[in-house]
Design brief:
Chain lengths: 464, 464
């Protein structure tokens, strides 16, 4: 059976695949720091060369920032999906360097209680993950002479610095990038050894407002008492966002468009190995603090939030200052789920504040902040169940459709700009220390990740 | 009658008195800026020389900062009080310089709709006010050959920069500075033309606390929902400080030691010319926002406050950051009245917070912030009513005992260190723009201020 041959090839080639990854990791492609601009370019060149070695028509494509890498291989065929694979070749900065046990761009294999790991910046986020797919393609090509379907490769070099060029590039090249399904390898497994397909992410609404009390900063002796203090006003408004009894958001209509999680999915979540105690205690909590009627996992994956990300006003230096400030500021973000409409929700939140303003208080809103609906994957598409089966086979453990608390903007952009559903499969572990010193990727994640993609390719193209 | 001779002398000497003040104002004695250290010294020398010209034994006394000026004149006598007069020769910085219509240290007389003013930095705060007393002494000396009682002059040069040397100097020289009554000329009239003796000031309690939620900053996608957000927690705690219905502070026992204002004083306040509408509207308010059961003036002068002076946590830069911060911070000050005990109140406020903390939230307090009781003058002392009569005579308008929302720390120090009551008489107007560009002092304030002090000296010593 040809899949077995591909898998055997992957096993045999693992040392060389690891060497290739190490070479890639040695390029310090830190996108946010201009000092590493040439290195980002080198990483893009490295990818182009590697894709070309697989017979893929790949090229580096300029942007106002770091280049994109786009590659095409294969022909569209009846009944076989055209896949787009996305990853990013840029990495996070490495500071504080003193906390690294080994130099971040001199990757090495290290033994740990959980098995060998590849230690180095980008090993997990995202070079190691990205290469699981490339190496699966390499093995497939070597066994079969060609890939099983048309595949577009799309790698960016600005994911860790806000992706400023991404949307314009996708808009300008929409026809070229259009495919049937996007595969994204930039996520974690829900717990060690449990293969996961992230099928429901949360959307995002950003807003910011300023409460103005007095026209100017006041002296708390001269005006303390009669003055409306905007910090007190803002605290009252923030407090009014919540119902303390239930832990719910108290903004009228906030939960419109929120759906309950179906029973069978809840069942998967209950047995997915999520370690609630570890999740909470690792950051200092003894209990979950969200909606009391929902489990910790539901609070994180399936329930919306209204979060205060920044709040400030008055004096914050050393000692004391007897000021009643003129202004108080608040930054909020909402995580959205289901069919929540960010534009409608923005109006509800603003109305909530405006309805509760004290006499003499004013509110002004920042109108430059965007919102995006929750990307909810259509897991009724047959590809999703096929991929879930392939992952279950590889990991000898039922794969689960998970939620994700975060937003993975790229999935939203694929939907919005290319009308493309995304399947998010990743093999990272929560202890990979991405964005932190001593980032690592388990060799097991790398090896079984490559094997997983080979199985997924086989399942999606029924070519095995 | 000899007081009339003194007053006539004051009238005749006004041009020269004004010239002397202008000379004093030309010295840029900005205490907070080290670049003006020599100028502060020059201002002290100027004062020493001027006092000596009145036959006062005056000298410049070194401190680790700017020097004090101390002068003594006259002998203690039975039935005649020994007075201590306090003022400060340093001034505020002048930035932004571009907003000054005339150079801040080139004082000039300028006509305005309210009459001529002396324009320049320090004209009102406090050189002009300080000189009203010195000029009264000069006229008295010239008519009578000597002053009517023993007087100690005490001028500091660090009032605008936190008075770091004041307490140590007073402690080291307590015996020398001890007197029967302190006179302080650094306050305003309650309204234009209404002579005022500030007889009740508010005390101050400072505190600062930090609420810690998660052990580290969290990603609002990964933890939003289950996470306790310290900004929300802090907002809830701040809100719990107040009873919205009554406008009162809701901390248990907060009002212990607060007394109602006596009826006759309330009557004075009602007719003192305080322009409530102007006071509120000048800073953008249409109504007072303090305790609903009390008038605006009572809220400012006679009622305690719990004010939020600074509140901050999370991200406050441009755009958005999806963070749930680990910490949120709050600076508070309370204005105290009557017999409120700052030490006891601190414990009550802390208990209020600690009793209401959520599970998993922690609070830490800054233990380096002080408190001071409200300095309440003993207006039953005969000197107070005598001075009030003298001021009423000069201004042809009943003088009033006013409150002051602020703290005038020097009055508290005189009480605490020298066990000395203070009488605060000043002739500034609210539109003097002290601490701001284009500071001025009405010529009328200067002229009638000098005459007022002559009358007060006469009344206190019954020497007229």
């Amino acid at each position: 059976m040809s899949l077995d041959a591909v898998l055997a090839r992957i096993d045999a080639d693992l040392p060389k695949a690891t060497d290739r990854l190490m070479e890639f990791l040695r390029i310090p492609s830190i996108s946010t720091d201009p000092a590493y601009k040439a290195d980002c370019d080198t990483a893009a060149d490295w990818l182009v060369a590697d894709l070309k070695s697989l017979g893929i028509e790949a090229e580096k494509r300029p942007t106002p920032g770091h280049p994109m890498v786009v590659g095409h291989v294969g022909e569209a065929a009846e009944g076989v999906p055209h896949l787009l694979f996305y990853g990013h070749y840029d990495v996070q900065p490495v500071d504080p360097l003193t906390l690294w046990k080994t130099p971040p761009f001199e990757p090495q294999i290290e033994d740990t209680p959980n098995g060998p790991v590849i230690r180095g910046r980008g090993s997990s986020d995202d070079k190691g993950q990205l290469m699981t797919f490339v190496e699966a393609c390499r093995a497939w090509k070597e066994i079969h002479g060609s890939l099983p379907c048309r595949i577009t490769f799309f790698f960016e070099g600005e994911e860790e610095s806000g992706s400023p060029s991404l949307i314009p590039f996708m808009q300008e090249n929409a026809a070229e990038l259009k495919a049937d399904l996007a595969l994204i390898c930039d996520t974690s497994m829900v717990s060690r050894g449990v293969p996961s397909i992230a099928s429901q992410l949360r959307g995002m609404l950003k807003d910011e407002f300023t409460i103005t009390g007095p026209r100017i900063d006041l002296h708390s002796g001269h005006y303390g008492g009669p003055a409306l203090n905007p910090l007190r006003e803002l605290s009252r408004l923030v407090t009014s966002f919540y119902d303390e009894e239930t832990g719910r958001v108290a903004v009228e209509g906030f939960y419109e468009g929120v759906h309950e999680v179906p029973e069978d999915q809840l069942r998967q979540w209950k047995t997915c190995g999520f370690d609630e105690e570890e999740y909470l205690s690792s950051v200092g909590f003894t209990e979950p603090h969200g909606e009391k009627a929902y489990s910790t996992l539901e609070q994180q994956w399936a329930r919306p939030t209204l979060e205060i990300n920044g709040l400030w006003g008055g004096y914050n230096g050393a000692g004391s200052k007897t000021v009643i400030p003129s202004e108080a500021h608040c930054k909020i973000t909402c995580r959205l789920v289901g069919d929540m409409d960010p534009d409608a929700l923005r109006l509800k939140i603003r109305k909530h504040v405006e309805d509760r303003l004290s006499t003499d208080a004013k509110v002004t809103w920042d109108n430059d902040l965007e919102g995006s609906r929750a990307p909810v994957m259509d897991i009724t598409r047959p590809e999703f169940e096929a991929a879930r089966g392939a992952l279950s086979d590889e990991w000898e453990r039922e794969a689960v459709f998970t939620g994700m608390g975060g937003s993975i903007p790229i999935a939203g952009f694929f939907k919005k700009i290319l009308d493309l559903d995304s399947m998010l499969i990743g093999f990272a572990n929560d202890d990979d220390a991405i964005h932190s010193p001593n980032e690592k990727y388990d060799v097991k994640s790398f090896h079984k990740g490559i094997r997983s993609w080979a199985r997924v390719l086989a399942a999606l193209t029924k070519a095995a």
